[in-house]
Design a protein that fits this description.
mainly alpha; Prepilin peptidase CpaA; hydrolase
Length: 164
């Protein structure tokens, strides 16, 4: 991994509650709030100064802009929700560019696990534990924040365990 265990150790405790909140709000309301995305970006802006060398920190901030533009295009063509694209942009600076292939594998596994978990809960009596969640009644729409939040958590946890 290109992410250092030092950086991941700094980031994870602050990112974890935001990701859990994103997962919860997307499951319960099918919405990733702008406040959560701004909090995530704010965490990077503050903690990134401690966790990363300044030159890497600045390049990671460039990733926010690049990913946000890509996300806006994907949202415009209907491939991605607005909240999802903003969350991905806010999460982008936490990801080392050299780890993108590994991140895609983590996301693929997390997405499949989240999709199966959601489908099982939705189609069994487990959904009675949270009967008012909007994600149960969305047809084919899936609360992507569930998988995206889990992916960022797992990536940073892997960074702590296997980081440079």
């Amino acid at each position: 991994m290109f992410l250092t265990s030092y950086a991941a150790t700094w980031f994870l405790p602050f990112v974890l509650p935001v990701c859990l909140y994103v997962m919860y709000t997307d499951l319960s309301r099918m919405k990733i709030t702008n406040n959560a995305n701004m909090a995530l970006l704010g965490i990077f802006i503050v903690i990134g100064l401690i966790a990363l060398p300044l030159n890497i920190y600045m390049w990671q901030l460039v990733n926010v802009v690049v990913v946000l533009i890509i996300g806006m295009v994907l949202n415009a063509v209907g491939a991605l929700g607005a909240g999802d694209s903003k969350f991905i942009a806010a999460a982008a600076p936490f990801i080392a560019v050299g780890d993108l292939v590994m991140l895609m594998w983590v996301f693929a596994g997390t997405f499949i696990a989240a999709l199966v978990t959601h489908k099982v809960a939705k189609n069994t009596s487990l959904h009675n534990l949270a009967p008012t969640w909007a994600s149960w009644h969305q047809g084919k729409r899936f609360p992507m924040g569930f998988a995206l939040g889990a992916t960022l958590i797992l990536y940073l946890a892997l960074g702590i365990l296997q980081g440079a």
